[in-house]
Write a structure and sequence with these properties.
single chain; five-stranded mixed β-sheet; 4 helices; disordered C terminus; binds zinc ion
Length: 191
């Protein structure tokens, strides 16, 4: 459903990111899959919050709602809008650390990845966030076709300079097929 490379204008403000953990696709793959959407898409989002037993990383619903607002702001003028379809909160000292636990976490928590954007919120060290797959690299129902984001980068989070929700906006761009907005130059970061 979301397997598409996007041509959108006036979109993602995330030029400061140098801590994205998403791998770099080959330029050949990128060029060969260029595609323009003809109709707009509304994407349901489910957040999965992974937090520690002591409460660290336990993000409230209000902050997740603001993240949805931030996403919609970032994609204003594009073909995409997002709405909050659900939240899960999981207390787990291991899963709180997203890096290296992606398969375990998504296997347990993923909800209808073919139709829902699952965003996992936890400690993303040493990154701010990442996606495992660009859309052309896995089937739509692959549980790893989703987004990982550090809880401190949500709107109002404790990462100074990265506290407006733009990390999620950047990584959702990868989820949708956008290249790193700070590399290449095929997609600009104007707003
Ligand atoms: Zn990136």
């Amino acid at each position: 459903m979301f397997t598409a490379i996007l041509i959108i204008s006036g979109h993602i403000s995330y030029a400061q990111n140098q801590r994205c953990g998403t791998h770099t696709p080959s330029q050949i793959v990128y060029d060969n899959t260029l595609y323009k959407l003809s109709s707009s898409i509304t994407i349901p989002v489910i957040f999965h919050v992974l937090y520690k037993n002591n409460g660290t990383g336990n993000v409230p619903l209000s902050q997740l709602s603001k993240q949805i607002d931030s996403l919609n702001g970032g994609y204003l003028g594009s073909m995409f809008t997002f709405y909050l379809a659900g939240v899960s909160w999981t207390k787990n000292d291991s899963w709180y650390f997203l890096d290296g636990n992606e398969a375990t976490i998504t296997n347990a928590l993923s909800t209808d990845p073919k139709h829902v954007l699952n965003i996992y919120i936890g400690n993303a060290d040493p990154y701010l966030g990442w996606v495992v797959y660009f859309p052309w690299e896995a089937n739509e129902d692959n549980k790893l076709h989703d987004v990982f984001v550090d809880y401190r980068s949500l709107p109002g989070g404790s990462f100074s300079g990265y506290d407006e929700g733009n990390t999620a906006t950047h990584e959702v761009g990868h989820y949708l097929g956008l290249y790193h907005t700070f590399q290449g130059g095929l997609y600009t970061t104007r707003r």
